[in-house]
Structures are given as C-alpha cells and as structure tokens.
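Lab meeting tomorrow. Please check the following:
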Amino acid sequence: MNAKKHLLIVTLALLALTISACGGAESGASSAVLTEAAIIYAQSLTQTAEAAPPTATATPALPTATNTPLPPTATPTVTGTPPTATPSATQQQSQGSGGNTPCLRASFEIETVPDGTQYTVGRGFTKAWRLKNSGSCPWTPNFVAVWVSGELFGADSVTQFTAVNINPGEYVWVEIEMIAPKPAGHYKGYWMLRSDQGVFFGVGITGDEWFWVDIESIPILE
C-alpha cells in the first residue's frame, strides 16, 4: 500500500472517531465512514498481495541417474579333451587261484596288419592278434571275440576263436576276416573277449582295455 492511501485511511479513521465522540444524529455517518475506510483498506491489501512477487518454492533436485554398466555374466568355457569311453566288464571279475591276478585277463603279444596299413577299397584281409591268457582262469571254447566300437569292416560282430581250453600262461590266435570299407579314409575298430558267463574282458593290467584294427582304405587306381 502506498503512502497516499495509508494517509487517507488514517485520516478517515480519525474523522470517524471525532464524529463518534460528538454523538447525536451524525452517528450513522460515522458508521458509513468506518465502513468505507474498511473497504478501502481491504482493497489495498488485495492490491498489495497481487503486486507482490511470487515467493519462489525450493524444489529438491532429483538425483541424476548414472549409467553404470552391470558386471558381465560369467560364461563357463569348456576346455580339455573329453575322455575316451572304455568298455568295462558286465560283471565283477572274481579273483582266481593266482591271488591278486584277475580271473579274466589277456596280454597282447603280436598282430598282423600293423596300424596304418593301406588297402584298396573293397579288398579283403585277415586281422589276427596273438593273445596270452594272463589271468588265473582258463578260456573255454565258448569264449568269443566281440566287436565293441568303431568300424566293423564287414566282419561278424561275434567270432569264436578257440576249440580247446586256453589255460593261464597259454597263447591263442584271434583271427577275423575283414574288408576295407568305402569311401576311402582312415578307419579303426575295437574288440574285446567275452567269457562263457557273458563277462567282457581284454588286455591291460586289470584286463579291461580293448585291442583294435587300424587301416587306411584307399581308392582303386584306374
């Protein structure tokens, strides 16, 4: 409110008090003057409030999002070479009369068709292994050689190899007729022995390793 309006309101208020003090017929005028002064004062307050600049309201600052990357997810890496499966006996071998010597075990001595021998596609050959009975139990005529993995080379998967008992310490030839397969390439087949009780066994210290045939089949030259 400016100084002029303030002075006017003060003047009117003093005038109203003077009139009120005099009393008589002018008391109505005194009320009117007071009312007018009140109206002017109220208007001045309204104008003052409108003219005043708005009060700034402090707005709390929002936190700024940081673009922090998440740690990468670890991906396991498979390393190494998977182990080669080795066929094992279908039954637990019992100990024979030799004490700690396995009942069923063979020892590899010599062979025909050395590893990597080349044959033309379709050519027949005889693969033979000379094995020693290094176990403590005899091998009977019901023992057989059995194909267990790899290339069969057109042979029978089960082959009888003896017509007599092979006692511990004795030798036998296991002979199998085979054919060089096609297409040309490197082939390998794995074999074991099987007892008359259905127990698979082979060579090695514990008698659970296989013996094999390994050849290279080559194209026929024209």
